[in-house]
Amino acid sequence: MQTVLFVDDDLRILQKLQAITLNKSIQCFLAQNGEEALKIVQEHEIEVAIVDLVMPVISGEELLDMITSISPDTVIMIMTEESNMREAVRIHNELHTKKIIVKPFTLSDDIAGWIHAALSLYHKHETYTQKQEIFQKKVDKYKQILFEMRNTIRNREESYEQIVNVFGMIMKEIYLNYDKLSELESQILADYEKKILNDFIHIFLLCEFHEDFFEQMLVNQYHDPGELRYFRFRKDLNDQIKKEHLGILIFITMYMTQYFSLVFPTFVAKLNLSEENECYVLNFLYEANGILVNEETKNRMIEMVTGILNEFADRYANAAKGNVIQYKVYINKNSLKGVFHHE
Known about the structure:
Layout: E1 2-7, H1 11-20, E2 26-31, H2 34-43, E3 48-52, H3 60-70, E4 75-81, H4 85-95, E5 99-103, H5 111-125, H6 128-174, H7 183-206, H8 214-222, E6 229-236, H9 243-263, E7 266-276, E8 279-289, H10 295-312, E9 315-321, E10 324-332
Parallel strand pairs: 1-2, 1-3, 3-4, 4-5, 6-7
Antiparallel strand pairs: 7-8, 8-10, 9-10
Helix pairs in contact: 2-3, 2-6, 6-7, 6-10, 7-9, 7-10, 9-10
């Protein structure tokens, strides 16, 4: 029986892919993380592997390197969202994968046909001798990779716990009390706190951001003329942003604009990123109208904004006049704060 491995941390995607291959004489294996996927590859002859690029702890690119080391004849296809297409094309060219599948899938996507073509390619190139030699080497290679992968996971888990602890310190200092809020308002506040934590972990642990994508990512996320929400970005820098500072700049920008998108139904946001002496300067100017939450919830969310600015910024200032609100945030180029500050 032909074999296909699907790897994605989203169970719904896995179930959808499995349903596509039903009644096609294909044995499907499902994995929600890198360790599960590697165990399957070691124990079974996998002819086609379809792997999502964005996954926690072990990334899709790292997993692809491991799979091709253990089972070089396996035909690889990668999955990614359109926003990650440039990175997907790079990996596709470097690893010579069979195809890039863009999520979410559409009715015009012939996924079953792509899988069939990949299976045909696998059987066209395989020989019995090659398969026997590869299988004999699998166990030793798997043990080596598993050892390296476990060390990687251990290191990242330590970083994850450090990040969560730092975030916990910030929230503890703010001391959010939900007693005075309605159930709906409490949920809004809890969702905002969860969103901040997710961004916090995502930026500092799981992803590497590049300066070239900074503006594009922010505009794509927050600029929506159909909802009367406008996000404008301007950058005036002499040199490239330090890698360790880029995460902090992105994080501050995302959670502050997320605050305005949750509190106000419409807004115009203008962000200017510049330099002043030894500091990066984030100058936010928001023109906001109406309000989606009550005053108590708004004040609690401002407490989160203030708490995290105190943690990450060297200094900041804010002012308001009418429906216009301004924040000016300074990040010193020669010092690190926030998650890097806590040992």
